[in-house]
Amino acid sequence: MARKITDKVTWVGKIDWELEEFHGHEFTTRKGSSYNSYLIRDEKTALIDTVWKPFDEEFVANLKREVDLSSIDYIIMNHNEIDHSGALPALMREIPDTPIYCTRKGEEIIRGHYHADWNFVNVKTGDRLSLGAAELIFIEAPMLHWPDTMFTYLTGENILFSNDGFGQHYATESLYNDAADQGELWAEAVKYYANILNPFSPMVARKLAEIQKLDLPLQLICPSHGVIWKDNPAQIVEAYAKWAAAYQENQVTLIYDSMWNATRRMAECIAEGIKEAAPETTVKLYNAAVDDKTEICTEVFKSKAILIGSSTVNNGYLYSIAGILEMIKGLKFKQKKAAAFGSYGWSGEAVKQLSEYLEKSGFALVNEGLRCPWQPDETKLEECRAYGREFAKSL
Ligand code: FEO
């Protein structure tokens, strides 16, 4: 159902309460998501973004209840990943000649996805489109998080339509940030940044500085996922500035998997040692085989150091660890420390291989790691605690 935001702007998106995974199986969305689309009515009418393909018919039907589709003068596509452009084919079947405003890359992506020859108008930073009393100003934002991404600013109402930027995979009836559960909202906002935008942090920092220089008054930030930032929208901009600057808290995260619990016992004792030497440090443990991978990556984002543990199996490490390491490498974390640990029976290569992988992924190695043959006895467990204490002191 459409929801009025201002005299000119109406939310016409879709809340997806049941979404459990996003980007295939890459991102777990424990709180669902939403695909926000916005209708702007001035002397001219513009639609900003659409919704994901499974909701295309529902989206078009709802939109028809809100507006005569033939009165839509412009479609603005800020970003053309399928969760925002998926309903375009259904919409364009109804209004095939309506111009689609997007970046040059955006046109390339739409053509690549839908193989349709629609009426594209390419825009660049600073281009303006008059809607009557108000104007749209386009701001390219490449790699936030795709090459086609742009933001659109509405003058008069002072609204920044930021697409994925400042978004959250968060299904809620609270349209605005101040009405949402603050714990859930911020947990989803940081998870979104850590898992989607972190690799592009240098571009985020540059874009924020550029937008600040434009000195545009900002009443609302309307992203394409989650809540609208209405109460002090600058707070999410400030959070992004902080997150883009190699963010870390006083936290150490241990991620492990274990065949016969030896590596798990090592993890627990290393954690005890860290806590003993640095009681004010938050220490968290995750088993990569059973815990939520997206949450684990968020915890890595928040950490100043991580420890990765695996048993040695078939001259390597466990596949759950291989999976989480690949995710961690792709997220390009900066200025974090790391080390590896694990138990083994005879060959015992895992710790060395994990150390090499961590180094290749941009982590500064604290030491050569800690290995334990077979099951740790009390002496070995005390060695793990001592290792944890030393690890904490080196941070
Ligand atoms: Fe929400 Fe990059 O799509």
Question: In a few lines, what is going on in this structure?
Answer:
By secondary structure, this protein is α/β, with parallel strands linked by helices. It has helices at 56-66, 82-85, 88-94, 104-114, 182-197, 201-214, 234-243, 262-277, 293-302, 319-330, 350-360, 378-393; strands at residues 3-4, 9-11, 14-16, 21-22, 27-28, 33-35, 38-41, 45-48, 74-76, 100-102, 120-122, 128-130, 135-140, 150-154, 159-163, 220-223, 251-257, 282-287, 305-310, 312-313, 316-317, 337-344, 364-365, 370-373. It has two domains: 3-243, Metallo-beta-lactamase, Chain A (4-Layer Sandwich), CATH 3.60.15.10; 251-394, Flavodoxin domain (Rossmann fold), CATH 3.40.50.
Describe the protein's topology:
Blueprint: E1 3-4, E2 9-11, E3 14-16, E4 21-22, E5 27-28, E6 33-35, E7 38-41, E8 45-48, H1 56-66, E9 74-76, H2 82-85, H3 88-94, E10 100-102, H4 104-114, E11 120-122, E12 128-130, E13 135-140, E14 150-154, E15 159-163, H5 182-197, H6 201-214, E16 220-223, H7 234-243, E17 251-257, H8 262-277, E18 282-287, H9 293-302, E19 305-310, E20 312-313, E21 316-317, H10 319-330, E22 337-344, H11 350-360, E23 364-365, E24 370-373, H12 378-393
Parallel strand pairs: 8-9, 9-10, 10-11, 15-16, 17-18, 17-19, 19-22, 22-23, 22-24
Antiparallel strand pairs: 1-2, 2-7, 3-6, 4-5, 7-8, 12-13, 13-14, 14-15, 20-21
The structure holds MU-OXO-diiron.
